Amino acid sequence: GEQPPHARDGRDGPRDPGVAGTREELRRAAARLALVHEIDRAILAAESTAEIADRVVERLRGLAGADRVSVSAIDATRGVLTVLAFSQDGEAGGFTPGMEMPLEGTVETRILVDHETVIHRDLVASAAEYPGLRTAAAVGYRAAVLVPLVAGERLVGLLSIAGHDQDVAADDNVAIATEVAAQMAVAIDHATARERLERSHER
């Protein structure tokens, strides 16, 4: 084979960094979409809040640098956060599902009040300001993404992803976590209502 003639401006299609960059962006966008769809299906197939959380946590561990993922339910009236699902790389000292923690001092106000997604690209520095992050920083986590689960106007839970390096807070991960959190919030809200109804029928 002969070499294809060069484009007039001296650039040869694929070797153009702009084109390669766009291709890489498209590939990453497709991978993001595939993962979000897969998680979507898993959420739809789940029966309970715990099962929804388990399925999401399991799949989000596949994100670059996601060494620790947890999903918690938030009960604003009682002022508590309850761990629904938790997964981390081999280390001890994690959370167990069902574990309750007070919202105050655990979850930042901007998440609780403004329903803001919070990205900590330097967990050690953030831990100085937010005591709730100290434990994670002390065991070697360096970055985290905290996404509120909001159904309607209500905060129903929190998705937390942490890693031993900055990779975990990459834009791709934040985009995936945000999309997944939106779907999961509605599913958890519905499942919680259903579980409440079932309990009231059992009485």
Give an overview of the whole structure.
The structure is a single chain. This protein has 203 residues and is an alpha+beta fold. The protein is 44% helix and 21% strand. It is built from 6 helices and 6 strands, in the order H-H-E-E-E-H-E-H-H-E-E-H. The chain has helices at 17-45, 49-60, 109-112, 123-129, 134-138, 171-202, and strands at residues 68-75, 80-88, 100-102, 118-120, 143-151, 154-163. Strands 3-2-1-6-5-4 form a 6-stranded antiparallel beta sheet. Helix 1 packs parallel to helix 6 (171-202). The protein is globular, with a radius of gyration of 20 Å. The N and C termini lie far apart (79 Å). The model is unreliable at 7-11 (pLDDT under 50).
What labels describe this entry?
globular; alpha+beta; single chain; 6 helices; 203 residues; 44% helix; six-stranded antiparallel β-sheet
Give a summary of the structure in a few sentences:
44% of the residues lie in helices and 21% in strands. It has 203 residues and is of the alpha+beta class.
Topology of helices and strands:
Blueprint: H1 17-45, H2 49-60, E1 68-75, E2 80-88, E3 100-102, H3 109-112, E4 118-120, H4 123-129, H5 134-138, E5 143-151, E6 154-163, H6 171-202
Antiparallel strand pairs: 1-2, 1-6, 2-3, 4-5, 5-6
Helix pairs in contact: 1-2, 1-6, 2-6
Shape: globular
Along the chain, the helix and strand elements come as: HHEEEHEHHEEH
Uncertain spans: 7-11
- Helical content class: 40-55%
Portion of residues in beta strands equals: 15-25%
Strand order of the largest sheet: 3-2-1-6-5-4
Structural class: alpha+beta
- The number of distinct helices, counting runs of at least 4 residues, comes to 6
The CA-CA distance between the termini, in Å, is 79 Å
Rg is 20 Å
Mean pLDDT comes to: 87
Beta strands, count: 6
Give the biggest beta sheet: 6 strands, antiparallel
